[in-house]
Amino acid sequence: NEDTLNVLTIYEQAIESGARLVIGPLTRNGVAALAASNLVTVPTLALNTLEARSSQPARLYLFGLAIEFEARQIAQLAFSDGRRNAFVISDETPFSKRMRQAFLEEFARLGGVTVAEFAYGADQASLIKLRNATNLGVADLVFLALDSTRAGTVRPYLGNSLAVYATSQVYAGKGQLAARELNQVRFVDMPWLLQADHPAVMIYPRAQFGDAADFERLYALGIDAFRIGLELLRRNREPTLDGVTGRIRLTRDQQFARELTAAQYVDG
Q: Per the confidence metrics, is the pTM higher than 0.70?
């Protein structure tokens, strides 16, 4: 469970039972507790990330669905599209704040400028303020650090003169009526949800989650975690995978990075 003492106890039991590979834990707190311990003696694939400058044992590898990586990829995508001046819209949720911060840092690192930031508001005054700002001609892109519902609320007020970008949080699954409000929004998500004809996606059975995209993403994470685990057991020093969660490669900080698929809403 999410209790860090439980995580360490279970990990110790796994090692004592002869485990040669451990996959998990899943939460940030669990990964942090494991990284700070002296328990990691076998290849361990943690399914989340660590805070910057945290100590990381030699055999601890990181792989997960951290939203920060998506926000950075969106900044890179927008910059490669020739966009240089951004509006950013975010709310007060921790998830939104993480998206916002990662985008701001990466876009600035590339040489882009964030012209203005706006706090999300569904009231008429806030939405009209957004519409007026988009008509000033000072920005060429809007980044929505929002989920699909909130993004759908503000998108109609952004007009068609600015390119609009977001993370996978705007994709809540097929058949969502809110998608009609997200016309022309560019985002990134995993092949598991976007590319039914992807070679890896085609060979794995699908669980029945209906339109629950977040469960689909966790299921796909499990598939690629299993495949990475096999590579770690084989002691492959430079494992790369064309995975169901993206193109995966091992970086210098023992982080398995995912390159996601770019997509765009057209007429819902």
A: yes
